[in-house]
Amino acid sequence: MHNVHDTAFTLFLADEAETLAIGRRLAAALHSGLVIFLEGDLGAGKTTLTRGILRGLGFAGRVKSPTYTLVEPYIVSNLYLYHFDLYRFSDPSEWEDAGFRDYFNRDSVCLIEWADKAEGLLPAPDWLIRLAPEADGRRLNLTALTTNGTQCLARLTR
C-alpha cells in the first residue's frame, strides 16, 4: 500500500462519517509523546477529526471545540490527550502566560488547532494534518515531520 519510508498520507473524505472513521484509524497509530498540528479553515472538520480520534481511543463522552476554554483535557486508554484551540490568541505571549508548556511531555498527545497563533513557542509537530475543502467533501493531508511521527504513520499505513 505505502512504502514504510513514506512521510505523507492523503485521503479524500466525503462526509462527517468518513472524517470520524479516519480519526478512529489515526487513534490506533498514536502513542504518547506526540505533538499534532491540525490546520484548516473554520468548519474544515478539525474538531470532527479530533472526535473521531477520541472515539478510536475509547472516549464516549462529549467532544467540544476548545475555542473558549483554549484546551480540553481527556484521559483515555492510559493516554493524556490535550486538544488545544488557539484561534482566540492575539499574541503568542499568551501561550507563556497560560502555562500550557507543561502539557507537552512524553506522557501526552497534544492536538493543536491554529498553532500559528503561538508560532515559535510550540514544540515542533510530529504530524501536521491539513483539512481542505474538495468537491463536496474535504481532503486530509497528513505529513510526518519527525522520526517519531514517521513511525506512527507507518503503523497507520501498513
Task: Give the gist of this structure.
The protein starts with 7 loop residues before the first strand and ends with a helix.
Explain what this protein looks like in three dimensions:
This protein is α/β, with parallel strands linked by helices. Helix content is 27%, strand content 29%. It has a 7-stranded mixed β-sheet. A hairpin with a 2-residue loop joins strand 3 and strand 4. The radius of gyration is 15 Å and the shape is globular.
Give unreliable regions as ranges.
none
| Helical amount | 25-40%
Radius of gyration: 15 Å
Series of H and E elements: EHEHEEHEEEH
Strand proportion, as a percent range, falls in 25-35%
Shape: globular
How many beta-strand segments? Answer: 7
Which sequence of strands runs across the widest sheet? Answer: 1-7-6-2-5-4-3
Structural class: alpha/beta
Indicate the mean pLDDT.
89
**Total number of helices:** 4
Largest sheet: 7 strands, mixed
**Cα end-to-end separation:** 7 Å
Key terms:
single chain, 158 residues, 7 strands, 27% helix
Question: What order do the helices and strands come in, and which of them pair?
Answer:
Blueprint: E1 8-13, H1 16-29, E2 35-39, H2 46-57, E3 71-76, E4 79-85, H3 93-98, E5 108-113, E6 127-134, E7 137-144, H4 147-157
Parallel strand pairs: 2-5, 2-6, 4-5
Antiparallel strand pairs: 1-7, 3-4, 6-7
